[in-house]
Amino acid sequence: MATKEEQETLRLLVQHVARGFYEPKYIIILDQLARHPVLKDDDLAGRMGLQAKELNKLMAVLGNDRLVQVYRQNELKEGAQRSVGRQYYYIDYKHFCDVVKWRIAEMRRIIDSSLRNELDNKGYICPQCGKSYTPLEVDKIMNFDKGILVCEICQGEVIDNENAESVKGSQDRMQRFNRAMRFVIEGLRKTESMVLPALDVPSWITNNVVDGDKQKAGQPSSLKIAGSSGSGRQDEGIGIVMSMDKDEATRQQERDAEAAAKRQQNVLPAWHLKSTISGDLTALGIQESARTIASTSQTVLASSDESLKGLGTIGPSRVPQVTRQVEDVKPEINHEADCK
């Protein structure tokens, strides 16, 4: 296991490499991986604020450059029937250092090769008159008797053109490269004395990710719902409000308001109801007045019926019937008349 000082050296090396060769979005990814041993794909996407597809494109670039390693495995969530492929990204520092060393050596080789080609093609110049010649013009100015190059104008000896702009730029190129890479080179020099063990990613996932999921499953969720106050108050119950039946006055007011709204909606313009010249009612005005009177009378009758409902049924009056009882009377018999 690397010490804190060695971890800090490796982290600075990753940061210098990222800022020397990559754009800001790649710099952020490498900084995150330098601070965490292993990062899950959805965790890294959440830290970056990117979708999974966008993150995969960025990680493909770093993976092709051999700076970031990826570990893939299928995981089965609780309650799910199909496993989902997950990716874990990490930096293998030993491999990282080897790749950076190779890249710097390759860049030096390219700069040195171009520098040699430019020095070979720097040309010649006459110090007396300033006439310059290209390497292809050597056959014209070559003096075989003296074994020197002679200027065609002043017959002076021609020397190498060390002051050419291309030569000055080539000489400074390697210096500028070394100056720009000094922090990376210093970090690589410090890592040469380190023993960088390989990271066992499956064991790390088992010890960290799986145990972390179990702890989250055993504890209540710490996520806050948007809009919640977070005061932790308990539910005070559900209140039920029951509305009683409306009284007759309220119903009558509602009917009157509804009728007034309908009349207002169906009202005709004033110039349809009255003549604009004489001011008398038109045919439509007479019909509208009659309809208004009829509607008003119906409303009054309806309200009267409603108010009399509690007093009994409205109908024709009943005539009381008189029952006469006939008494049985015994007939009187006149015996004297029968004797006569």
SSE layout:
Elements: H1 4-21, H2 24-35, E1 38-40, H3 41-48, H4 52-64, E2 69-75, E3 84-90, H5 93-120, E4 124-125, E5 132-133, H6 138-141, E6 142-143, E7 148-149, E8 159-160, H7 165-180, H8 182-191, H9 201-218, H10 248-266, H11 270-273, H12 283-308, H13 335-339
Antiparallel strand pairs: 1-3, 2-3, 4-5, 4-8, 6-7
Using brief descriptors, characterize the structure shown.
Arc Repressor Mutant, subunit A; 8 strands; 340 residues; 3-stranded antiparallel sheet; TFIIE_asu; TFE; mainly alpha; 53% helix
What does this structure look like?
The chain is mainly alpha-helical and 340 residues long. Among the domains are: 4-95, Winged helix-like DNA-binding domain superfamily/Winged helix DNA-binding domain (Arc Repressor Mutant, subunit A), CATH 1.10.10; 123-161, no CATH class. The protein has helices at 4-21, 24-35, 41-48, 52-64, 93-120, 138-141, 165-180, 182-191, 201-218, 248-266, 270-273, 283-308, 335-339, and strands at residues 38-40, 69-75, 84-90, 124-125, 132-133, 142-143, 148-149, 159-160. The strands form three sheets. The protein has a three-stranded antiparallel β-sheet with strand order 1-3-2. It has a three-stranded antiparallel β-sheet with strand order 5-4-8, with no helix packed on it. Strands 6-7 form a two-stranded antiparallel ribbon. The longest helix is centred in the N-terminal third of the chain and has 28 residues, at 93-120. The termini are far apart. 8% of the residues are buried. Residues 216-243 have low confidence and may be disordered. Residues 211-236 are annotated as: Disordered. Pfam families: TFIIE_alpha. Belongs to the TFIIE alpha subunit family. Residues 10-101 form the HTH TFE/IIEalpha-type domain.
